[in-house]
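Continuing from the previous page...

OK, I double-checked the sequence for Thiamine pyrophosphokinase against my notes and this is the correct one:
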Amino acid sequence: MAVLRPGDMFAAESDTTALLILNCPIQGVGMLRKLHANVGYCICADGGANRVYDILMEEYGERGWRDALKVALPNEIHGDLDSIEGMVRERYAALGVRITKDGDTESTDFGKCIDILRERVDGLRDVVVLGSLGGRVDQGLGLVGELLRVAGKVRVWLVTERSLSFVVHPGETTVELGEWKRGSHVGVLPVYGPATLGTHGLKWDVTAWETEMGGKVSSCNMLAADRVVIQVNREVLFTVELAIH
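Thanks. Re-ran it with the corrected sequence; updated structure tokens here:
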């Protein structure tokens, strides 16, 4: 039985965890700093560097751009580099940030960064992705698809505006959520195809429940215990509201 502890992403430092920042709005500098402090390597996917630059300059610009950017300095900026702004690139380069290009038109910047992280980080186990599902629909659905595509390579935790999401694999999985408030919203979503689902630890648990998009879906559920046990016969997307004690 697999055991997942998503709270570790916010509380425990790990050299085998990396932070990947996508080209999406960052809701607050506090979350950025917390995630950045707990990882061994930080990479911005192309225009993600613009997002980090903008929020740090807005928050700490009075210190001067060098000190502001050092608050959450990435180790690397990677992608096709068609989105990063010229001044942003110049300033990060001046601070010694590695800037690397991959012009492959058949892969996303997300996928390119996952591949680079597997090269850069010895024993890479977890990648925390700071992104968004609240913008363009095609980008959001594409990101959900990417989570499954890379699931066999590394464990990915997607932090968006109000939720933490990750893939749960077939079999039985315990998700430890002691840091979360009871009543936090939870979804167990069959976005990768029809599934048979069982849960324990939610307000509305199910047993041998047939679920599929367009049919019955366990969305808008609520956390009722410190852990949730999931039995499922294929991959599902587990999402929990960012309502930590």
